[in-house]
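Researcher: Please generate the 3D structure of the following complex. Treat every line as part of one assembly.
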Amino acid sequence: MNWQKKEHRKPQGGKIRALTTAMTYEDLKGRKVLVTGSSSGIGQATAILFARQGAYVGVHYFSTKDGAQRTLKQVKKNSDGALVAGDLRDEKQARSVVEKFVEAAGGLDILVNNAGTMVDRQSFETGTLEYHEDVYATNVRSVFLVTRAALPYLKKSKGNIINIGSVAGQTGGAGGSGMYSGAKAAVATETISMAKEFAKYGIRVNSVFPGFIETRFHEQYSTPERCREVAKKTPLGRNGTGEDIANAVLFLASEAASFITGEYIAVNGGLYMRA
Ligand SMILES: NC(=O)c1ccc[n+]([C@@H]2O[C@H](COP(=O)([O-])OP(=O)(O)OC[C@H]3O[C@@H](n4cnc5c(N)ncnc54)[C@H](OP(=O)(O)O)[C@@H]3O)[C@@H](O)[C@H]2O)c1
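Model: Done. Output below.
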């Protein structure tokens, strides 16, 4: 590990900013990493930073092929990788994403279960059953299906898993994000359950809980005023970037975290703190 200068840059939606990482993890070089949902936002930054460490990266997308192609282009500036596509709510497609990645990479060392979204904002009082089912399928079923498909390969590599939860899973969310919050709390708890179950295979399982991160997510679900309000009330005085989350993922994936499992890192600028 080497310390390098870290600069913070203002979050921007859409185009890919120049990303920085403060650390070099020698052990991530050559690792085979599948990052679900890396066509955009947090997953995109994570894929690019893994490539900076010399990892081979699986860039997964569902509907945003051009975003995934942009990610892969950046990945290839530093390392190599492959595009894999599929709707991770679907068992066959989730399995095919993992199999296609393993075929291209020759194995799997690190799985980042990042794909997910709020789908919509709906309240418990008036929200539909369809919405409830979809938000859990998108955020919880997807993690289960991809992890189960990946398990035989992770057992071989004694690899590790990082699940992306959310601060909403800790607070219960607000403004129609309650069911999404419940789904993210399930991801958090299942991270611990998986860590217990897979420890016998030498597989570590951890999670990162992002706070308010300015990606396409908030372009879809929050107004610019809301983004400014949250930045103001955040103790560190800004909203997060994809690379803020990616840097925590890299640490958990690396040998620097080799005795850490069933844990989470909250990356939220102090927006929510443990008592
Ligand atoms: N931004 C935040 O403030 C925040 C806070 C806490 C947690 N998170 C979590 O962080 C993760 C990444 O979010 P983000 O902010 O980077 O959002 P984003 O920019 O909207 O990216 C979401 C990613 O998930 C993929 N995805 C969505 N539904 C999918 C499905 N059914 N099957 C497969 N892939 C699917 C998308 O793929 P396509 O675009 O290709 O369809 C995209 O790559 C999510 O799990 C989100 O819940 C975000």
